[in-house]
Amino acid sequence: MKRISIADRILLLATGLLAAYQITAGMDGMEPLTIWFYTIGFGTLLVAGLILIILGFEGLESKTVVIVSTLIPLSLSLGLISEHLPEYTILYLIFSVVGFTAIVITRFSVTGKSATIVLAIVHGIAGLIIFLLPIILSIQGTMPVGFSLVGLGGALIGMGGLLLAFLRAGQPILSQKTILTLLPVLLLLMTAAFVAGFSFG
Amino acid sequence: MIRIITDLKIIKTKYFPLIKSLQTGLLLITGLAGYMSARCPILNIPTLLALSGSLFLAISGSTVLNMWYDRDIDAMMPRTCNRPLSTGKTSPQEALILGLILSFVGITWALALDLLYGAVVFAGLFFDVVIYTIWLKRRTAWSIVWGGISGGMPVLAGRVLGTGQIDWIGIALAMAILFWIPTHILTFSIRYHEDYQAANIPTFPSAYNFQTTRLIIAVSSILTALAMGLAAYGVGMTWGFLRLMAVMAVGLLVLAVRSLTFPSDRITLGLFKYASLYMLSSMLLLFSVGF
After folding, report:
1. Do B255 and A20 touch (CB under 8 A)?
2. What band does B79 get if pLDDT is binned at 50, 70 and 90?
3. Is A100 exposed, middle or buried (0-12, 13-18, 19+ CB in 10 A)?
């Protein structure tokens, strides 16, 4: 496993600080439920970043990484739905809870394709919502153009999820070292895109 | 000029390591955070500087006195055998005189600033040097409770200076530090178990076992977060800051549970580092409340 460098730590710290800013000051005027959904998403980013700084990349060896990395897109997409499509909040909340529970169960009790399929469905739907919804809202004129940056963050989160999936599966498409070099950069860019998108929106 | 540089070099190598700069710095930050949490209507820079100076001297003094008293056991443990008193770089007399002067000046300054504040600072020094180090540290593993109480005194002192009284928020802040200290000391007692055994110091891993010690660390971490959250709410922090503290506390909880379910030295050390980071960030948030 690649040793975490000073540069990696700085990037992760910057990610954490951006997430902390979003939690403290970036959600003014939103509905309480929406605030909690976003808090879970950015909070997971913050805590995960800090734990990586402390434990190093060895922290990614845990089975719980997949579960934790699912929390981020699910909670952010829940926040977007409750903020912009409130009539679908309950429906999507049920999907999220069921999806999340399924991922937890399949991670620990099922091996092989079914675990991957569950993960792909839940991640895929959450990722598409984060990617498409802000862009559609910006095009429609419901939200300012800058809000589409949240969609960019959604695309980056998809890439991050893909990298982590490669890492966990041990696929040779990218070397472990390359993935771990890219990961902190990607996390920072993703968080920056989210924070910028929300502040412009 | 050359002489000044030489003197500074001597201070850096002989005396500066005696004050454990990181620990002293963190305790000083807790004192400043306690003061700022009082939300004084006008930020009084001279008082803030006097608080910093008196606390720094008192904490440094007690740390030097601890190191002077523990020089025999420090010399037995690989982790501490390179300290200036163990290597002979600083003589015991020099350390004792330095510790007494720093403590005396710090306490006197604190008493001159405010009697109640000075009394709390003195209590911290007394609990740390006399009760914890001299009386209990070599007798019982439970001495860490007194180490924790003395560690909570700087934040209480800062709060007392800001409000003029001992209130429940100050007590809650001190409790948060009291519960945080075991994560610090017990992690070290697991990591350097053999060192402590060699020096014949009773610790939780030797008196009970590693799993019980990890359980205490985990419970202490959770209690730290609860006490800190309560104090932060009492201080009147904004919801944004409270949310951030809650998120940080969840991280603490996750690592605490992890250290119990999948115990390893790496996770225990990680929990200790995270708990320190949690404490530092909580104190910085408390500090910012004053502005």
Report:
1. no
2. confident
3. middle
Q: B243–A23: do the CB atoms touch at under 8 Å?
A: yes
Mean pLDDT of B198-227: 90
Searching chain B, which residue's CA lies closest to the CA of residue A48? B251
Token pair belonging to B248:
């940080």
List A residues 46-75 in contact with B (Cβ-Cβ < 8 A): 46-47, 50-51, 54-55, 58
Asked whether residue A103 is assigned to any structural domain, the reply reads yes
Number of domains, chain A: 1
Express each pLDDT in A126-139 by its tens digit.
999 999 999 999 99
Q: CA-CA distance, B259 to A158, in Å (whole number)?
A: 30
Task: State the residue for tokens 């060895």.
Answer: A58
Which class for A41: exposed (0-12), middle (13-18), buried (19 or more C-beta within 10 A)?
buried
Query: DSSP letters of B235-249?
Result: HT--HHHHHHHHHHH
B277 touches chain A (CB under 8 A): yes
3-class secondary-structure state, position A171: coil
For B153-203, write each residue's pLDDT tens digit.
Answer: 999 999 999 999 999 999 999 999 999 988 888 888 888 888 888 888 999
Give domain status of residue A1, yes or no: no
pLDDT at B41: 60
pTM value is: 0.85
Residue B125 has pLDDT above 80, yes or no: yes
Domains of chain B: 18-288 (1.10.357.140)
pLDDT of residue B42: 64
Q: Which long-range contacts (CB under 8 A, 24 or more apart) does B207-214 make?
A: B207/B140, B207/B141, B208/B141, B210/B263, B211/B260, B211/B263, B213/B186, B213/B189, B214/B190, B214/B259, B214/B260, B214/B263, B214/B268
- Rounded CA separation B70/B86 (Å): 10
- Residue pairs between chains A and B whose CB atoms are closer than 8 Å: 46
Q: Which ipTM did the prediction report?
A: 0.88
Q: How far is B243 from chain A (nearest CA, A)?
A: 7
Which residue range(s) make up the domain with A25? 6-198
Nearest-CA distance from B245 to chain A in Å? 10
The answer as to whether A102 is a domain residue is yes
Ranges of chain A whose pLDDT falls below 70:
110-112, 165-173
